[in-house]
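Appendix B. Chain record.
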Amino acid sequence: MIDLHIHTELSPDAKGTFDQYISFAIEHGLKIVGFTEHWDFDRFDPTCNFDVHKKSQEICRGYCGPIEVLYGAEIGYHRIYEDYVTKCLDEVKLDFILGSVHEVEGLMISEVAETGEFFSKFGKKGFQVYFEAVANFAQDGIFDVLGHLDVIKRFSVLYDFPFKEEQHKMQILEILDILVARNKALEINTSGLRQPPGASYPSLKVARWFFERGGKYITVGSDSHEPAMTGKGCDETIQNLINMGIIDITLFKERYPVVLNVIGEPGQGFVRKLR
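Structure tokens predicted for this chain:
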């Protein structure tokens, strides 16, 4: 089993040490884990704790044990910081960069209260505004994997704005086409399975659209912010992808995609091949 979206106490909204996550992962049969501490360049301090990511690099690279540990980061930023972001990323040797949109028009759409403010401001057009921001982010393309593409649905339903995928299909397809053109990966984030949507970010239907339009790379991650959530929903999601005929799951080593051809039940073994 594989989980490529994990936060430890080095992220401001997470708890638990690296060792606690590793212990839980081993106990529950994970084979490959990727640590992706938050690195947001757009909020209050553009330096955003560069030392934290040097520390994460030191911990991940120093690990030697029975499972494979990959060193990543989850970035979010505004275009005004793009040169600075690129410089910072060049100074740490990441295995992969997860790019996620958390903030739109100055509001954190991954937080319940600010999601309410967002929809109070934009109403039903909020979804359009959000997907425009994701499309712009995808165009910049400084990441390897686009994280939780439709996380806007996380709390929208609480404010009487349920997310209806088909109504936004054209904007989603536009984003997928950008990813395909830039040879980027799409994350299936399983945290939505345990949150109000009850569905991954994005759904497996979107994963199918991605492959149908020429996408090559899909990653799976729990978006764990505490040890006990590590790997949650990943086995289930991988099995559902297999059932759809999608048997290739991707990880990254030193920013290079490595495709895992999944054989049999998740966790029973992978055949690794480069593409």
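Further analysis of this model is presented in Appendix C.
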